[in-house]
Amino acid sequence: MLMMLPAVATMASLYTTDFYQAILNWDAGILLWIQEFIRNDFLTPIMKAITMSVDGGIFWIVLSVILICIPKTRKTGMCSALALVFSVIICNVLLKNLFGRIRPYEVIDGLNLLVKAADDPSFPSGHTSASFAASVAMLLSSNKKSKPYAIAAVVYAFIVGFTRLYVGIHYPTDVICAAIIASAFAVPATYLGKMLYDKLAEVFRKKKEAKAVATEKDGSEK
Known about the structure:
74% helix, 8 helices, disordered N terminus, elongated, mainly alpha
């Protein structure tokens, strides 16, 4: 804990700089523009439903589990699941606590929050991080036949990111940085996921061969 104090002090000083104020003004301008010109009674329930589908990463967790359960997509599911683990550790545990950024609806005058207030820091967006981590890992580990579905997952990740701005719970920079960071660590997560899959596949293959040899031996002895 003591080792983190210099970093916390640095973050606190960052929020008083002219550079950060310029970023905040840019963020605020976009959020207020979305609130005034894009929010409407038709889109709001759709945006809220999409953003809530990723609460706790549930959409991507369920999708990863389904992919793991299907033999042909098991490798992709494992890569996606591992990327989600990276997302939790890097974005939710490390970066959120390091930056400790206050949510936009607590700072920007006139911004109305459309969902329940969050009790964790704002930067980076956890929903966006999970969405890009999982979908990019799916894209990187997909084959030619499954690539259109992986592309659709990436498109959904972009939509999720936008919903976080629409409902007023994140700054644009929270979402942009989360997408970039998650896409970056999805690469090593995919590599490790493929390697883990190949190792496990080899173990099960050897066990299956050993079982077949034992069965054949028992049959010949009888």
